[in-house]
Write a structure and sequence with these properties.
The structure holds two protein chains of two kinds. Chain A is mainly α. The N and C termini of chain A lie close together (8 Å). Chain A is 57% helix and 0% strand. In chain A, helix 1 packs across helix 2 and helix 1 crosses helix 4. Chain A is globular, with a radius of gyration of 11 Å. The longest helix of chain A is centred in the N-terminal third of the chain and has 15 residues, at 3-17. By secondary structure, chain B is of the alpha/beta class. In chain B, the strands form seven sheets. Chain B has a 28-stranded mixed beta sheet that branches. Chain B has a six-stranded mixed beta sheet with strand order 1-3-5-9-12-16, with no helix packed on it. A three-stranded parallel beta sheet of chain B has the order 33-36-39, with no helix packed on it. In chain B, strand 42 (443-446) and strand 43 (449-452) form a beta hairpin. Classes of the chains: A mainly alpha, B alpha/beta. The interface between A and B is medium-sized, with 19 and 25 residues.
């Protein structure tokens, strides 16, 4: 997958999880500060990304990701 | 010490000093008793007086021993006692050496009282049916079996006989004020047994109770306390307007700030301030510190109640008949609410208000939260909360009991056969559900909660990590010890065979802090029924024996669970399998540890700084935060986690190096 394709999927899942429009999600959005994710939401979000990409990620690595752009890079790296 | 009747000259001296007696012939004194220290005392009935020599320190001032301004009826007074300024009477007490009773309205006993022994506490079910009778050396375990094992009527009947016998032994004609006890500035104290070194200062009213105490850990009852039908164990501290009605207070409990409780038991190291407890079985380390927190009709242990925590046990139908079980290690967040019946699994967190009956005993370490009025669960999330790690470390360190006898038996392990077996069942249930639930479904209903379908596999994965870490950690740890002691592989693995047999090692239960295989509890039950346990003391001894067996019983569980999980009988484990075990342990440990570390770091993230550097630019906000909270680099908890993380590969390398040396032998 190209980074753009990964980005589209990450943004789509993120929008769905936060009940937002995809157009309102920016790569610079921080999950906690901008999107209002708490610890509980973070778990659901990681699970949703995993299902979208058909991957099982290392939680300790996934939980380090702070923003949407970071999530895109994280999954793009995993898919390479 | 010989006691003698008063001579006529001595009677005259006492009369001159303002004393009188209903009959001077029934007053006896110790040989050499200094009568000049007995003033303005009215004697009634039979009174025996020891030496009045010496002094006692009262309110920081050294004052002479002796008796003054008091009415004393049917008492035996030891040596070096000070009794002064009694409003009404001191009656029917044995007052042991060194005691002080001063500025007390009334201290009396009605002959034949049981001092609160035998009082029935309607715990758990407010409407009754689980009555627990309290006695002066009640343990959490003895209370648990009284209240909980109601399925076996013969056991209930036999146990009741043991308690009857215990209560009848507590019945007495006189009370005791123990050696060196001090009772100062109090109102009415009636039918209360007072242990050695007790300090009662400013209590308002104490009726029908026992205050156990010991020199190593004196019990303190402070100002404004109002208690009736109660037992207080050694080292407890109750002060500042506490109100108790039919309550057992365990060893080392701290209680104050107008806390009130009725029909409740609070065992060792509980802390209760401000709030209210009704029909509560508070196992060890139950903590409630805040106003407007009501704990009702529930069983708790190693529990922390957030402010405004509340539960309902009443559906306005057949009365307040519902009860709740919050297994060990739970926390309830601010203004959380639980509708009882509910069964919350071990080490879980409850956030928000829940109007469904929650029943998820096989999902320990979970977060139960509310979203838009819907109750949801995230299984296993508390496994990587830094709070869980801290709790597990702090309880043993905060054991407040200093007396020689620690009555409540406790196993502190966060990860134990009890919790690990729950996780194994939880994992299997979640995996089975993940196979059966269609992808179109976002949520499933589970035990009264909504469970996100995406979290079925996720929860199972968390549990798998913890199970893998526990089993492989325990196996490699023991193998390492055996190999270090005896550098022979065959003998080292042979000694991994457990020394105890259990018919079913996977069934465990938590008896108010004591973890034990269920069949051991069934054994105790059976012995009570068949009369082999014939006294209350033998019941306590049976629990003590189970406590001593915990380590070996736990190993039996590990041995059997390892065989089930990996198909390996430990006496047959090979070098290669041992190396795989340490590899799995390292991976699981690193993963869980990494998650805990990330969780702890969140406490230093941008959102955590919101309240810092008020109206200041960003730079000052950061500086203010760092001045108050420190940094990741300076925080003790985080740095301890970092060090522990660094130790994981080192422990693996040490094990590998040890085991590899056996690979060719």
């Amino acid at each position: 997958m190209t980074r753009e394709e990964v980005a589209a999927r990450v943004v789509g899942v993120t929008a769905q999880q936060f009940a937002m429009k995809t157009s309102d999600i920016k790569e610079s959005d921080q999950f906690t500060v901008d999107l209002g994710a708490d610890s509980l939401k973070s778990i659901e979000l990681v699970a949703a990304y995993e299902e979208a990409f058909g991957l099982s990620v290392k939680e300790e690595e996934a939980l380090k990701v702070q923003d949407v752009g970071g999530a895109i890079d994280f999954f793009f790296r995993l898919l390479q | 010490m010989p006691f003698e009747k008063l001579s006529e000259q001595q009677v005259n001296q006492l009369a001159r000093q303002g004393c009188s007696a209903t009959d001077w012939h029934t007053i006896t004194i110790a040989s050499g008793c200094d009568l000049s220290r007995i003033n303005n005392v009215q004697f009634s009935g039979t009174v025996r007086i020891g030496s009045t020599d010496g002094s006692r320190t009262v309110d920081g001032v050294e004052l002479p021993c002796g008796l003054s301004h008091a009415t004393i009826a049917d008492c035996t007074i030891g040596d070096n006692v000070r009794i002064a300024n009694i409003g009404s009477v001191v009656a029917h007490y044995v007052i042991e050496n060194g005691a002080v009773i001063q500025d007390v309205g009334c201290l009396s006993v009605t002959p034949g009282t049981t001092f609160g022994n035998g009082t029935e506490i309607e715990a758990l079910n407010e409407a009754g049916g689980r009555g627990i009778r309290i006695v002066n050396d009640l343990s959490a375990q003895a209370a648990y079996v009284q209240g909980v094992l109601r399925h076996n009527p013969e056991f209930v009947k036999r146990l009741s006989v043991l308690i009857d016998e215990k209560v009848s032994r507590a019945k007495a004609e006189k009370g005791i004020v123990g050696k060196d006890a001090q009772i100062l500035h109090c109102g009415t104290i009636q039918n209360v047994m007072i242990g050695p070194s007790t300090l009662i200062r400013g209590a308002q009213s104490l009726r029908d109770g026992t205050i156990a105490s010991c020199p190593e850990h004196p019990t303190e009852i402070g100002e404004g306390v109002n208690a009736r039908s109660f037992m207080v164990a050694e080292g407890a501290r109750i002060e500042n307007g506490v109100i108790l009605d039919k309550v057992f207070v365990g060893q080392g409990v701290k209680m104050g700030k107008q806390f009130s409780a009725e029909n409740s038991l609070l065992f060792a190291n509980c802390e209760a301030f401000h709030g209210e407890a009704v029909a509560v079985f508070a196992g060890p380390y139950t903590v409630t510190h805040h106003k407007s927190t009501l704990l009702i009709a529930g069983m708790f242990s190693f529990y922390n109640a957030g402010s405004g925590t509340n539960q309902s046990n009443h559906m306005y139908k057949l009365g307040p008949v519902h009860q709740g079980v919050l297994e060990r290690g739970c926390k309830t967040g601010s203004f959380s609410y639980l509708l009882l019946e509910s069964h919350i699994p071990a080490f879980s967190v409850v956030i928000g208000k829940h109007f469904t009956n929650i029943n998820i005993p096989h999902l320990p370490f979970s977060y139960i939260h509310e979203e838009g009025g819907v109750s949801k669960v995230i299984p296993g999330m508390n496994l990587f909360s830094v709070g869980t790690v801290r709790d597990g470390e702090k309880w043993p360190k905060r054991d407040n009991r200093k007396g020689p006898i620690k009555r409540d038996l406790m196993i502190f392990d966060v990860f134990s056969p009890y919790t690990v077996e729950k996780m194994r069942r939880g994992r299997d249930e979640l995996l089975a559900l993940s196979e059966s639930v269609p992808k179109e479904k976002s949520f499933i209903a589970y035990g009264g909660l909504q469970l996100n379908r995406l979290l079925l596999k996720k929860g199972a994965k968390y549990y798998s990590l913890a199970i893998t870490r526990y089993l492989n950690g325990k196996v490699t740890e023991r193998l390492k010890v055996n190999l270090t002691r005896d550098r022979n592989w065959s003998r080292a693995v042979a000694s991994l065979v457990p020394s105890v047999s259990l018919t079913n090692s996977s069934e465990w239960t938590d008896i108010a802090g004591l973890l034990m295989p269920r069949e051991r509890l069934a054994g105790v039950e059976e012995q009570v029924v068949n009369g082999r346990i014939a006294t209350y003391d033998q019941l306590l001894a049976a629990f003590a024996a189970s406590y001593e067996l915990y380590a070996e019983d736990a190993w039996r569980y590990i041995y059997d669970a390892y065989a089930q999980e990996y198909g390996i009988r430990l006496e047959d484990i090979t070098v290669e399998q041992a190396l795989k075990a340490i590899d799995e342990w390292e991976q699981a440990s690193s993963s869980l540890h990494g998650m805990i570390l990330e969780d702890s770091k969140k406490e230093f993230a941008a959102f955590a700084r919101i309240g810092y550097g008020i109206d200041q630019p960003e730079e000052e906000r950061v500086k203010d935060f760092e001045a108050v909270r420190g940094t990741i680099e300076t925080n003790g908890v985080v740095q301890k986690l970092v060090k522990e993380g660094a130790a994981i590969p080192r422990l693996r390398a040490e094990f590998e190096s040890l085991v590899a040396s056996f690979s060719t032998t």
